Amino acid sequence: MKKTNTKERILNEALRLFAQKGYDAVGVEEIAEAVGIKAPSLYKHYKNKRAIFDSILERVNEMDAEYAKDYDMPEGTAEEAAAEYKNIPLEKIGEYTKAMLLYWTEEEFSSCFRKLLTLEQYKSNEMGRLYQQYISGGPVKYISDVFFEMLNSESEAYQTALEFYGPMYLLYSIYDDTGDKAKVMALLENHIESFSERLNRRIADKTKKQPEKERF
């Protein structure tokens, strides 16, 4: 088993404490104590608590990019990667969605980060912005970009993204509090399946109507 170095332990213990108590409620001394070192030793690795938080953000961004790459999901906006967005199969979106539920609930680092942002979102503008970016508005915008390439309508794509992500967003909290994790995953799979059927019908209907529009 790979031994975690001190700098890594500081990052993990700090995030765990932030998720439990909130960012402002945790001091450097408490983080150092959780790691099993003295505060002066912690400062050899991070100059202050803010530097620890910045490293947490950096780690989350790296993990996000790794997951997107592992599931062949495009990065950037629809304008930057239009062809990639247009060619994403719904099955791939479904697999990525299931992976994201586990990422934000089972993966300790990202799960603690989500809980931190949920706890702190109303305490500061920065935390509120980060919550939007990672947990609520950001994912909806990403999914909306994907659906825009399928539906060719910005308003319809955004509404469709809300319909898709809304249940998933609720399932994060349900998954946290239930002992029957498999049931929640089954709910998500049923949601993805029924949603995909509806979306495929919608795309097919738009395709049928397109020649009629072109004749006018």
Short description:
The chain has 216 residues and is mostly helical. It has helices at residues 6-21, 28-35, 39-42, 49-70, 82-86, 90-105, 108-120, 125-134, 137-151, 154-177, 181-214.
What would your notes on this structure say?
It contains eleven helices and no strands. It is an all-alpha fold and 216 residues long. Helix 7 crosses helix 8 and helix 10 packs antiparallel against helix 11 (181-214). It starts with 5 loop residues before the first helix and ends with a helix. 20% of the residues are buried. The model has no long low-confidence stretch (mean pLDDT 89).
> Which sheet architecture does the biggest sheet show?
none
**Structural class by sheet pairing and helices:** mainly alpha
Please give the number of β-strands.
0
The residue-averaged pLDDT reads: 89
Overall shape: elongated
Query: What is the terminal separation in angstroms?
Result: 68 Å
Beta-strand fraction estimate: under 5%
Residues in helix, %:
over 70%
Rg estimate, integer Å: 21 Å
How many helices?
11
Spans of 5+ residues with little confidence (pLDDT < 50)? none
Index terms:
about 220 residues, 11 helices, mainly alpha
Q: Can you lay out the helices and strands and say which pair or pack?
A:
Elements: H1 6-21, H2 28-35, H3 39-42, H4 49-70, H5 82-86, H6 90-105, H7 108-120, H8 125-134, H9 137-151, H10 154-177, H11 181-214
